[in-house]
Design brief:
Layout (H helix, E strand, L loop, with lengths): L57 H20 L7 H24 L8 H28 L18 H11 L1 H6 L3 H13 L10 H6 L1 H8 L3 H7 L2 H21 L21 H24 L15 H17 L11 H18 L2 H11 L11 H10 L1
Helix pairs in contact: 1-2, 1-12, 1-13, 2-8, 2-10, 2-11, 3-4, 6-8, 6-11, 10-11, 12-13
Length: 395
């Protein structure tokens, strides 16, 4: 095909229908004034080779940002729980829903995952590689700042926050399996229950957490947009207020009577000094409580674009980076000061934690650490023949 209008003199090939001129531009004259111009089809859109960028949903970005803020605040409340029953009640309540909400959203956005090569590459570069890098970085940090020079580097035993990357990797790989079985959510809950009564699982790859948090990921896989619309109704928002207040009151009562380790989902019932049947009861009870409080959380997440919406794309950055400060605050005894344990000090610590995690989710921080969180690593993969063929067809 040629760009010339008249490639062969007077013997012209038929031209495509003329497009409508832009406003203010005169239409070209036709060689035959008596012949009516051929109208351009109104329904034919202009073709373009560049794919349109996906529109991000402000609701989910808002939910991810607010959930990660609760994660940071929960970590700063943990050292305060021994001396403050209020801090312990807040801590237990937040731990009931903040990671379940985050995991449910992760499942929701994993619905399209399959074993396609490009998606496997993104799984490796966006989850597996950051796990390796941050596991090594955390270990070196513990050796130096934590005063434990003999702490080994072990990719089989995640330390602190890196368990989530291991879990996300395993969950996403099993996504096709959950799509073909008949009762995925009950099966996932059964797996979590069995894990809670199986102390022999050990610490390899933090399998207790991988399996006990699994139902929230599977639930997210089968969530639909209308389910989120359901929990965002006005009556749900109103009902969520007494539910959350009741949860806080229950946590205030239960604080001195139970260990908060149940909310971490990292140990079996026997490892927590409880009989095996307590694992069954607590797993089911906490799953139900987490779903209810997560629904209450979603009910109050703003739907429109907010000043913090853009930060939703950087929550994994904030999650992994704030771990150095969260652990460093213990290594450097920041919580030993008496003023921190006063009501004003506890409020100040909470505000600082929210501010720090907010900064760590910002685009400038993302650009600095993208080499570790989203490496391209094109050198490590074979070229996709299908993608290459598509690129040639477009040129």
């Amino acid at each position: 095909m040629t760009n010339s209008l008249y490639p062969h003199g007077s013997h012209r090939s038929p031209l495509p229908p003329a497009a409508r001129p832009a406003d203010g531009v005169p239409a070209p004259r036709t060689l035959h004034p008596t012949a009516p111009p051929t109208p351009a089809p109104a329904s034919a859109p202009a073709r373009t080779d560049a794919p349109k960028p996906k529109q991000r949903d402000a609701f989910f970005d808002n939910a991810k940002y607010l959930a990660i803020v609760f994660v940071a605040m929960g970590h700063c409340w943990e050292p305060l729980t021994d001396g403050s029953r209020t801090a312990e009640a807040l801590y237990m309540t937040v731990y009931t829903f903040h990671m379940p909400a985050f995991i449910l959203i992760s499942g929701y956005f994993s619905r399209s995952f399959d074993m396609r090569p490009d998606r496997l590459r993104r799984l490796i570069t966006g989850v597996a590689v950051p796990y390796v890098l941050f596991e090594i970085a955390y270990t070196l940090f513990k050796r130096t700042a934590g005063g434990d020079p003999s702490y080994p580097i072990s990719l089989l035993d995640p330390w602190y926050l890196t368990w989530f990357l291991v879990a996300l990797f395993v969950w996403r790989l099993t996504t096709p399996l959950w799509k073909i079985i008949r009762w995925p959510i009950p099966v996932a809950v059964a797996v979590a229950v069995l894990a809670s009564v199986s102390p022999e699982l050990g610490d390899d790859l933090d399998l207790q957490r991988v399996l006990q948090f699994l139902p929230f990921f599977v639930l997210g896989l089968f969530m639909k947009p209308e389910h989120f619309q359901l929990v965002r109704r006005r009556e749900v928002r109103i009902l969520s207020v007494p539910i959350v207040l009741g949860a806080l009151a229950l946590a205030y009562w239960a604080g001195p009577r139970m260990t908060s380790a149940w909310f971490y989902h990292r140990d079996s019932a026997q490892e927590l000094g409880a009989p095996w049947w307590a694992g069954v009861v607590m797993t089911l009870a906490l799953f139900g409580c987490s779903i209810v409080l997560t629904a209450c959380f979603f009910a109050w997440v703003p739907r429109r674009k907010m000043w913090f919406t853009v930060l939703g794309a950087g929550t994994l950055y904030g999650y992994l980076l704030h771990g150095f400060l969260a652990k460093g605050s213990r290594f450097w005894n920041w919580f030993d000061a008496d003023w921190v344990h006063t009501p004003a000090g506890q409020i100040a610590v909470t505000v600082v934690a929210a501010a720090v995690i907010t900064v760590l989710c910002t685009p400038p921080v993302q650009r600095i650490f993208r080499f570790a969180m989203e490496p391209k690593m094109e050198w490590a993969f074979k070229k996709d023949a299908t993608a290459v063929a598509r690129a040639r067809a477009r040129t």
